[in-house]
Model the fold of this input.
Amino acid sequence: MSGFYNIYCDESCHLENDREPVMLLGAVWCPKPEAGALAAELRALKQQHNAKGELKWTKVSKSRMAFYEAVVDWFFARADLHFRAVVVQHKERLNHQQFNKGSHDAFYYKMYFSLLNKILSPDQKYNIYLDIKDTRGRQRLKLLREVLCNNVHDFTSEMIEHIQNVHSGELELMQVADLLLGAVAYRHRGKTGSPEKVALVQRVEHLHRRSLIHSTALSEQKLNLFLFTPKQTHPE
Done:
């Protein structure tokens, strides 16, 4: 094995009937040996800016702006940190009866597969942490692990050392996934109500050197985006 990585996953607008036009899944990943030092750096940033509690997109505000700008700058400055997101556009077009055996839950895990299978490599090992959103998630972890490993012919599931649901407050680097995914979601939802959030999105785009509204090349490792548009179906 050439490397061992931790992957921290989060999601936004993932409920079927939340009236949001998009659904997003995102992941921050880094080498496992660097995870502790990176988390310590993030805690130091929190202490420096007197930012108590959990780092979250929903907490971006005028009084916390310097801290969140510092976190974005830190992410782009650290070569060991990477982010990928899948954006499902036009969520109202989803036809689960035709494509997902009638299950939004099945589609949700298909998108998790789409998010993760472009990160994983069969010659490396991974720990994967998913943010707990409801009580059903634990039931699907085993299946997700099997599907991801079988996709690369790892039928003994050695590639994924560990996969677990956790609360985002327990892992600092999962909170970075929340922040970056929040910025992508804000851009795709067309929100402009918070000048601070608009400014933070613009800062991410400036450092990313391109808009968050478009897919990136698959080879883009720092901030990778994939936009998925459901097929337009018509009643017979």
Remarks:
- The first strand starts at residue 4 and ends at 12.
